[in-house]
Amino acid sequence: MRIRCRHYLLILLILVHQCSVQSQGNRRRNRSEKCPRVRAMRNFDLPAMMGYWYVIQYFASSETLPEYSCMQSLFATSDGLVTMNFTYYFSDDPLRNFQRGNITWVIPNYSAPAHWIHAEWTYEEVYNTYVIDTDYRSWGLIMHCAEKTKTQKYLSALMLSREPTLTTNVINFLREKLPRYDIDLNYMFPIPQANCTDPVQDPKQYFKYETL
Q1: What tens digit of pLDDT does each residue of 57-97 get?
Q2: pTM
Q3: C-alpha angle with apex 145: 98 to 194, nearest 5 degrees?
């Protein structure tokens, strides 16, 4: 009887261990699928953030190599929306053909104006954008995260500057804010801003997407 009891006890321990391992694996998968809790900037001054910005560095969880040059953006706000018109060209394009695009966000809660939600119907599921930090005059840091059905979350981040360059200490200061949000700094790539032809900044020249 003792031998049989020990046998049953051993089987029970194995089953408990397997369930524990499966549970841990599920928790890891769920974490990779869900956006991190982001602390958006407090006491954020939305109008002061608007205007022209150079994108100095960027991260995208879907990309493992640097792809862009001369990425620049123009932020504007009206009627409860934030719009970013942007231009860039692909680094491997010998003709340097500038691409143009437009993103529009809704501000869901005016008591937290540093949190925006993408307004375009073209985006799947909820796509949040957060202003992590900015001094308005020189530098800024924004982050995007989307949770997609049956796939891992999509993360991206943009380091912004009012001038084509930032000092090394400011770059390091901003980069240090990102790992807590699951952003791998090995893939936070610089975007060259030298020898960039000034793109046309007329909003009518940008692609427009259907918005809410």
Answers
A1: 999 988 888 999 999 999 999 988 999 999 999 999 988 88
A2: 0.77
A3: 30
- CA 126 to chain CA mean position, Å: 13
Q: Compute φ and ψ for 14, nearest 5 degrees.
A: -65, -45
Question: In Å, what is the CA distance from 108 to each residue of 30, 35, 115, 137, 146?
Answer: 25, 18, 8, 25, 16
Residues whose CB falls within 8 Å of the CB of residue 170, separated by 6 or more in sequence, listed in order: 138, 139
Amino acid identity at 161: S
Q: Pick from 74, 118, 49: which is nearest to 206 by CA?
A: 74
**Amino acid sitting at position 100:** R
Look at the block and give the residue holding tokens 């030298």: 194
3 state SS for the chain: CHHHHHHHHHHHHHHHHHHHHHHHHHHHHHHHHCCCCCCCCCCCCHHHHCEEEEEEEEEECCCCCCCEEEEEEEEEEECCEEEEEEEEEECCCCCCCCEEEEEEEECCCCCCCCEEEECCCCCCCCEEEEEEEECCCCEEEEEEEECCCCCCCEEEEEEEECCCCCCHHHHHHHHCCCHHHCCCHHHCEECCCCCCCCCCCCHHHCCCCCCC
